[in-house]
Predict the structure of UDP-glycosyltransferase.
Amino acid sequence: MQNPKIFILLPDGVGLRNFSFTNFHKIGTQKGFDITFWNNTPFDLTDLGFKEIRFTNPKAHPLTDLLKNAQTQIELNLNIKKSKDPIYNHYRFPLSYKNIKAALKSTYIKGLVLRYNSEEGLVKIRKNIAQQERKTKLYHDSLATLQHEKPAMVFCTNQRMMLAVAPLLAAQDLGIPTATFIFSWDNLPKATKIIETDYYFVWSEHMKNELLYYYPYVKESQIIVSGTPQFEPHFEADYLMSKEAFFAAYHLDNSKKYLCFSGDDITTSPNDPTYLEDMAQAVKKLNEKGHRLGIIFRRCPVDFSNRFDKVLSKYSDLITPINPKWEKKGEAWHAILPTKDDLILQMNTIKHTELVINLGSSMVFDYAAFDKPCGYVNYEVKNASAPHWSVHTIYKFIHFRSMPNKETVFWINDPESMEQFIAQTLNGNSSATVAHAKAWFEKINQHPPTLASERIWTAIQQLIQN
């Protein structure tokens, strides 16, 4: 087959980083694929020299969102029943009753859950979603596009968006193979697999086993272990700036060593401002003992709040905020889009800092790629603004159970431990922890991490030939 046409379906912006800003497109082109991005993001991919076909005002069926919410609740119920583990309850988003319309929707969802709360019920829910989506203008527009373009495969960049259902159904109804990529390391336990495809690309054998556990109707032959392209740029030296250039660009002090505090969103970590202040206090004490340290604060890309302002002002001599270079195209979280410039910024932030402190972030893997340690904050905050939130619940989430051992990160169990962790790293005593973090990285993401795009394209080639 000469120059087979592959559609890369971008139902939202979360796939841009993996599939548009890495060498994924370049490698596919070198292998002889004719690549078109089926683009439902506000980002104009023609600016990168890519071919794209854009969706025109795509909408899911009104019932689909209700069915999807019921599906998620039922899957979590069944996960609890199967595992006897109540942690899955913490993956639920509360139903809204803020007005009559919201209350009616929530009541309808609860009725669906009550009626279809079983494996057999889930099958009916999935069939109902497909039935409703085949009625939509999006489905019929997708049919027309696919009939005209005749791609050899449609590859969807994540598994959780309702707007991907109709285009993928259209492809399947035309006999075109479909595949999706499981986007994040924590997605499968959270019941976020909304779409059904012929093939599933996952990060690792660990994630493959998760997919088989949570979705037993998926066959092993449908799963391809590829790794994720998101870590590939960390190993490309061309993106790295010299210390002098990076420090000059962000007005950093050449005489200091810098540490990174990586923020979470306000739902995941409402107490981040306190943790940042505790880190600043630790750095202040170390500087009084003769160190010359500063902090780079990298906020969560979807956090535009002012909740850090007081801390940043109070410790302006210690903390330099370097905001992620994401673009806000709307108010919804999925309308805040990554950019290639931010990918480069993140790499250089890691390169030019000694360590990272955060609450349970996957930045542990980014720093492991650079042979640097991560400290996980692991204590409650007195008089916290979110009294029903607990740090101890966070670390009970399923994805943290994949740690090879507890020494994979430094556990910061109280504010005083901040100083100890930083001092230990500066003294060169973090090599064992970094080694454990790298072992965790190898478990979570197929190694070598530089070959993820290569593995994806090789698999696509084999699948369409078969």
Q: What stands out?
A: The longest strand covers residues 5-10. The chain has three domains: 5-60+136-228+449-465, 62-132, 234-444. The chain has a mean pLDDT of 95.
